Amino acid sequence: MAVSGAGAQNILKIPELKRRILFTLALLAVYRVGVHIPTPGIDGDSLSAFFAMHQDTIFGIFDMFSGGALERLSVFALGIMPYISASIILQLLKVVIPHLERLSKEGEEGKKKITQYTRYGTILLSLIQGFGISVGLENMSGPGDVAIVNDPGWAFRLMTMITLTAGTAFIMWLGEQITEHGIGNGISLIIFAGIVARLPVAIGNTIQMIAAGEMAIFGIILLVVFMLGVVAFIVFMETAQRRIPVQYAKRVVGRRMYGGQSTHLPLKINTAGVIPAIFASSLIMFPATIASFYEDMPIMGYVSASLQPGAFIYEALFVAFIVFFCFFYTAIVFNPSDVAENMKKHGGFIPGIRPGQSTADYIDRVLTRITLAGAIYVSAVCVLPSILMTRFNVPFYFGGTALLICVGVSIHTVQQIQSHLITRNYQGFLNPTPGKQKK
Length: 439
Description:
mainly alpha, Preprotein translocase SecY subunit, three-stranded antiparallel sheet, 5 strands, disordered C terminus
């Protein structure tokens, strides 16, 4: 979705939209500055050398999501993953805890309460992960057996726990501010910014491999064409819909007749968007990261090796979690019974299907089938990096969760900007036509 020149000019004509975009860019810049502020007590050179030797492991994936913060062990090293993990736990608990389910149906007040619980969970998970990372770093060393931690002990552990937890809390606040006062989803945009920030490094690695003769120019051209094809495929799937025809009966109110028109119910192929990929990555990275710090223990060493990209158990769990969260999240955000009831109240029906429960069952059947197709699509895109890295020696983490997030967040953000333009009688980005704004 390219932004045309006329569309960009229309953005500048709307003070509120311009303010929101500038506000979002400013907070993302603050986030990128924080990525470069290191946690005290760390030998930065030794830590960087350690990550250079483990780029193809779970450390590389975690570092990609944190935008390079983990490699420097900056104050934002944990990134936004504890918040996502807390959100997953709350979503799952809604199914088994009636109180949380009632809160989710109480409108804005219930949403605020669940958000508060999510924040508490984020702090708790950050403290646990901060402690695990601090203890793990004390047992690690870089090349030449140089210790990564200058002065190990409880003082370092407590300082690291507090620093990393404060960093995650600040990122969480940034994301909420972007969502409320900026444009797009703040949490997704922060992950997006971290992934995009790693792109220059990936391009640099590719250039070095070409210069060293490890990759041919023709191979790079094929790779670029393949990348563009994958991006086009993701855009197509993210915007694809299954349209169910809906007919509204004619109603006479007074001397006027209403209804009688035909419309459709749009069901997205991938209703859950990038959420399943993020949730699945977060669930796998948490135990994998903790286990990798204790590889000297036989059990932990086996767990760490099994949860590395390319390992069968890792890929199998990744696909299983993606499929589960595709169905789980779709069930949360879309209720066929509510849609069928609302359709019945307004005199709508699906041709050939009885209103009420029959309509709900039909919508549920269609939604289940297209969600399965969406889950297969997301899984295929997300396991693509492992195939490229292990089979074709691609020097960077192309595709997968990173590409899905980048394309999905870009589409969602552009759609939000376009909706702001349309509400003010602008044509939008895709097919802008010059004209004056109606008063």
